[in-house]
């Protein structure tokens, strides 16, 4: 029989030494039984919540399906943060104000046997999101927005082991009138943001260190947690006599030192695609589109629909390339065309000319800040001048709710 010890070779000062790590020993049988009972109880509670939200508490007869189409893109009604805040992958390093705890988690072998708990590091923190000041389902006073993350870090000696592994704990929140005895206290966690139902369920294996986003179950308003406000998060492994960890999270009120990103312009991405205008001067505006160029860069394209010196409609075209995560663009070339006609009624006489430059950033989801400097050629009667403006978003694009 092979030894259960794992040998790790390290080179220290030119000398090769061997360190032996043993897999955790078997846990008492009663610990396994208690954990399995807790898993069944939690999953039954969530199943009842789902049934009550979907069909009411009464059992119904099976109904044949009649929908042959997939869903249409929409923002999650029970979202916990602005959809524009994050995309996969989630951060693998905590930042800002971080709460941590060492916690033994219920541990199993690949054969399904209960082992002594493996101790991991639990971290909870927030990442700043766009904060436009609007009231939202997850922020009733229009304050600062953030996404709340939790990370489980296995120790180096255990990282990636699939022959033994900790399991995901039960997560519950107490906030307002909700306490840990309420079914509505349970937290949906996912490894990918902006999901509707994805759930890293209690007792799921955790093979490698992983970051999770705290979400809401779509069981109704009672299950809606507002993670921007103060709450307590209980992380319960149900592992024998191990006590759960409880994190006390304060209201999210960012400061420049703790959350500098909360005070910076937004990264320019697809959520910056929109129509923008000055509410005091309806009839002029700018259409912006962010175009993917692969994994390294994006193209910023904009059409500024304005007026010439005679008061007739006139278009300026802006286009520039930028790397991912760029928060502003400086001196992007602006062009105008001449020699065309209506509805394709023209030949090859269209000419493209330089107008000037435009610099742009997005302080939040609802506003575009830009400065300009340029003019058309002599005799073209086109618009010209220099200045700066802050314009307002007209509306969100379908499935790209920027808040």
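Sequence proposed for the structure above (403 residues):
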């Amino acid at each position: 029989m092979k030894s259960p010890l794992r040998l790790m070779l390290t080179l220290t000062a030119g000398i090769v030494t061997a360190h032996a790590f043993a897999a955790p020993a078997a846990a008492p049988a009663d610990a396994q039984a208690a954990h399995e009972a807790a898993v069944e109880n939690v999953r039954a509670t969530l199943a009842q919540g789902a049934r009550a939200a979907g069909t009411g508490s009464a059992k119904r007869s099976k109904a044949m399906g009649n929908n042959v189409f997939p869903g249409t893109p929409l923002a999650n009604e029970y979202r916990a943060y602005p959809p524009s805040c994050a995309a996969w992958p989630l951060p693998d390093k905590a930042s800002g104000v971080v709460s941590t705890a060492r916690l033994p988690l219920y541990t199993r072998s690949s054969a399904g046997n209960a082992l002594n708990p493996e101790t991991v590091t639990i971290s909870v923190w927030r990442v700043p999101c766009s904060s436009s000041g609007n009231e939202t389902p997850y922020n009733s006073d229009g304050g600062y927005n953030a996404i709340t993350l939790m990370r489980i870090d296995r120790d180096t000696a255990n990282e990636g082991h699939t022959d033994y592994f900790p399991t995901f704990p039960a997560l519950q929140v107490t906030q307002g009138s909700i306490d840990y005895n309420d079914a509505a206290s349970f937290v949906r966690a996912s490894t990918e943001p902006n999901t509707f139902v994805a759930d890293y369920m209690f007792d799921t294996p955790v093979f490698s260190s992983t970051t999770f986003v705290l979400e809401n179950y779509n069981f109704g308003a009672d299950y809606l947690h507002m993670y921007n406000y103060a709450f307590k998060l209980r992380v319960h492994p149900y592992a024998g006599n191990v006590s759960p960890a409880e994190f006390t999270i304060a209201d999210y009120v960012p400061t420049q030192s703790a959350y500098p990103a909360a005070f910076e312009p937004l990264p320019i991405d697809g959520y910056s695609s929109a129509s923008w205008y000055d509410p005091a001067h309806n009839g002029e505006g700018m259409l912006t589109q962010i175009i993917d160029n692969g994994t390294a860069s994006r193209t910023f394209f904009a059409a500024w629909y304005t007026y010439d010196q005679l008061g007739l409609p006139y278009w300026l075209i802006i286009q520039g390339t930028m790397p991912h995560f760029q928060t502003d663009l400086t001196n992007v070339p602006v062009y105008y065309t001449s020699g065309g006609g209506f509805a394709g009624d023209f030949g090859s006489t269209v000419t493209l000319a330089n107008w000037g430059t435009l610099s742009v950033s997005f302080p939040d989801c609802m506003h575009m800040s830009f400065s300009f400097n340029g003019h058309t050629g002599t005799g073209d009667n086109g618009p010209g001048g220099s200045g700066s403006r802050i314009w307002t978003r007209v509306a969100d694009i379908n499935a790209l709710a920027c808040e």
